[in-house]
Amino acid sequence: MPVEMSHEVIEQTGGLLGAGLTMDLDHPIVTTYSANPPVTIDVSMTDLSSGLLAHNQLTTIDQSELSSQLGLSLGGGTILPPVQSPEDHLSPTPSPTSSLHDEDMEDFRRITAPKNVVVEQTKKQKASKKRKKKDPNEPQKPLSAYALFFRDTQAAIKGQNPNATFGEVSRIVASMWDSLGEEQKQVYKRKTEAAKKEYLKALALYKENQMSQVVVETMDLDPSHDTPALLPESPVLSPTVATAASMPQSASSPPTTIANQAPTPPPAPTPPPPQVVSPTPSIAKIIISKQMLQAGQIPTSISMSQGMVTVIPATVVTSRGLPLHQLQPGPQTRVTRSVQAAMQMLPRLQPPPLQQMQQPPRLQQMAPAQQPSITILQPPPPLQSMQKVRLSVQPPPLQIKIIPPPLQPQPQTVQVQAQTIPIISLPTSPEVPASPEHLEVLTEVVQEESSPPQMDVQLVGVSPPHSPSPQPRCVRSGCENTPVESKDWDNEYCSNECVVKHCRDTFMAWVAARNQGTLASVK
DNA sequence: ATATTGATTGTTCGA
DNA sequence: TCGAACAATCAATAT
């Protein structure tokens, strides 16, 4: 505490608030002055209090006496010889009770009693006063120079005179303010000016935010639809949505809307909105990552329309900085779920023409698909091209096709290529029914696949690589029969049985070789 | 009208 | 109904 210094200041300058205040107030203490009042303020108040209040051992001061003494000391002409040294004042701080003598108590009552009456009177008068409701987020107006000064000095006054009432402190502060030199006042005024600039900035930003509010809604198009949420507990969705919600929107850019806009679709401008919304009441869940929003890219989107589930991942990097496909539970689980949901719709739907499967509509034009197909665009791992797995499942014959993806990992522009490689062709047979369970297994295997697509094709591939023999034989290993021609296979098999066996063996071998125990659940 | 601080009073709500 | 928590009010003064 700067008690000694205050004494020195007064002794040397002969004034109360002269050099001391100037010296310390010139210090830039903008950020701390409110919490820690300027040292010199404390000094001055200490001496002021000691000189004025403690001199008479008053906790309540006679107004005229106070004024005269304040005027005397603050006027700067006379030095008040402190009866008590500042140190004495500080060390055992005079407790309110101990400092109160009987006479003081009388003075206290004499002064405070009428005050209470006044309070009661003004209470009724100002009962119906200001009714202001403010937005808590609205920036606070900068304090006036006097308010800053009051805040700084009142603590010192209170410290020296704990029993001083608010009115007394206010009068003391006002006297000090009056006696404050213009330079010292300028210090506070500069603070106020600086705070005002900040206030204007904050106010502008606040108003801007008021103008543009982000609308973020995520909901199922059909809540009654018993479909597990595609992206429920995703570690990606929550942060991204929160980011979108908290991200300030500039007035020029439209609010980011993640919503089902079926009731009132907005006038879609030429650039399609970043989300793919299913036209049918099934499910629409949107992910917009922060990176994508900032880059203005089309975000991850999932749409489902009459059995067609489209997963368009965002760029690989997520908010965690991990590739999307590495998250657990990641898109694998979600995709599987959506696939399962789509599977249940399959039996009712008729297989589409092959041409349609090979040339699906553009992603932004995912009009109601006529075939029960599932298009899954998985995010490419780094240095890997995007893998596009297209499962076209239909009642007999069942087909699963893997389409090698284009090399450019640009989900928003990628189109499904017409080139397809038939891998497994399973005609309906009693031995291998195309049950949903089986489909699910196949699907999950494909979903969990994250290795380069080439390997998939190679492993899953049905046709033997080569070995052109002069006498054609059935493709199934161990079968020596001559293949027969059928509409279900291309002159490779001798019978339906061989087709089934061959496919089963191939698939099981692929599963075993592929997973090596990592997918023990797949049988 | 509003700000300073802190005591007091009034209101609301849960136990 | 009671107590806790919160809100409103008031003081003197300056802006």
TrEMBL record:
Primary location: nucleus
SUPFAM superfamilies documented for this protein: HMG-box
Ranges for domain HMG box: 139-207
An example Gene Ontology molecular-function term: chromatin DNA binding
PANTHER family: AGAP000281-PA (PTHR45781), TOX HIGH MOBILITY GROUP BOX FAMILY MEMBER 4 (PTHR45781:SF2)
UniProt cross-references to InterPro entries, sorted A to Z: HMG_box_dom, HMG_box_dom_sf, TOX_HMG-box_domain
Residue span of region Disordered: 72-143, 240-280
DNA-binding region ranges: 139-207
Source taxon at top rank: Eukaryota
Pro residues bias (residue ranges): 263-276
Role: Transcription factor that modulates cell fate reprogramming from the somatic state to the pluripotent and neuronal fate. Also acts as a regulatory component of protein phosphatase 1 (PP1) complexes. Component of the PNUTS-PP1 protein phosphatase complex, a PP1 complex that regulates RNA polymerase II transcription pause-release. PNUTS-PP1 also plays a role in the control of chromatin structure and cell cycle progression during the transition from mitosis into interphase.
GO annotation, cellular component aspect: chromosome; nucleus
Subcellular compartments: Chromosome; Nucleus
Compositional bias per record (Basic residues), positions renumbered to this chain: 124-134
UniProt KW keywords: Chromosome, DNA-binding, Nucleus, Phosphoprotein
Listed GO biological process terms: regulation of transcription by RNA polymerase II
Gene3D superfamilies: High mobility group box domain
Subunit structure, interactors included: Component of the PNUTS-PP1 phosphatase complex.
Protein name: HMG box domain-containing protein
Pfam families reported in the protein's UniProt record: HMG_box
